[in-house]
Specification:
Distance between the termini: 38 Å
Number of domains: 2
Order of helices and strands: HHHHHHEEHHH
Strand order of the largest sheet: 1-2
Number of helices: 9
Helix content: over 70%
Length: 250
């Protein structure tokens, strides 16, 4: 638990530092790097081709650099490649969308904070922090009050009580951050609900992948957390409605 907390604090400091820089490009490089590591971890879980993982990494770099209308077009090659190969590659090709699209949308939202009409308060923090708050609350509430298993066949340690605590924390933090980061209460509701519901579904989704592959963690790069994919699994589900809402309502 100690190493988990230390790693989480260091990650939060690093994220804050990147997002508060006067230019968005360093954050884009970091997002692309984390995405590439996640793709490699996913390839390991699914026993997919490392060549396909490398291609996915190049695709993610392109997505960070390209405008949003090109996103779906850029995602077509790995999907087609996956359809032509074995089952592990097929699933990997399809699941690249799960990693690449949310991260590309996240970076595009971050870039908008540098336009003159938008505050420099970095509203994407309102998308990220509620997910992380929910993760943290799930651990502590689950340990203190957890009695009923949420999905024992997928993740035997997750509890209903922890899930409820996670949802409450995500929604509360999203609304608490609204006046600080200068975003609408409508966005706060979307951020909070996305983190509360989709964030936990993303966590369960990755747990199901690992369960089927009979692995505990996606990697070991983050002490106390496992791999990068273990850290951002919930975020990948929650970030799509959050970023789309921000792009529409900002």
């Amino acid at each position: 638990m100690k190493s988990r907390v230390i790693t989480a604090v260091l990650l939060l400091v690093a994220v804050m530092a990147l997002l508060l820089l006067p230019r968005p490009e360093p954050a884009g490089i970091a997002i692309a790097a984390l995405g590439c590591i996640s793709l490699a971890e996913l390839a390991g879980i699914l026993n997919a081709s490392k060549i396909l993982a490398a291609f996915g990494g190049l695709m993610l770099l392109a997505l960070v650099a390209w405008p949003i209308p090109w996103l779906l077009l850029a995602l077509l090659p790995p999907l087609l490649y996956g359809l032509l190969k074995q089952d592990g590659n097929l699933r990997f090709g399809l699941l690249q969308v799960w990693i690449c699209l949310p991260l590309a949308l996240l970076y595009r939202s971050h870039c908008l904070a540098f336009e003159p009409v938008v505050t420099l308060a970095r509203p994407i923090l309102g998308m990220l922090i509620p997910v992380w708050a929910g993760d943290t609350a799930a651990i502590f509430v689950g340990k203190a009050f957890g009695k009923h298993l949420l999905a024992p066949k997928i993740s035997p340690k997750k509890t209903v009580e922890g899930a409820i605590g996670s949802a409450i924390a995500s929604i509360a933090v999203a609304f608490a951050l609204a006046p600080v980061l200068h975003y609408l209460s409508t966005l706060a509701a979307i951020y909070g609900l996305s983190a509360a519901i989709l964030g936990q579904l993303g966590d369960l989704f990755e747990s199901a992948l690992k369960r089927k592959a009979e692995v505990k963690d996606s990697g070991s790069i983050l002490p106390g957390h496992g791999g990068v994919l273990d850290r951002i699994d919930g975020l990948l589900f929650a970030i799509v409605p959050s970023t789309l809402a921000y792009l529409y309502l900002r």
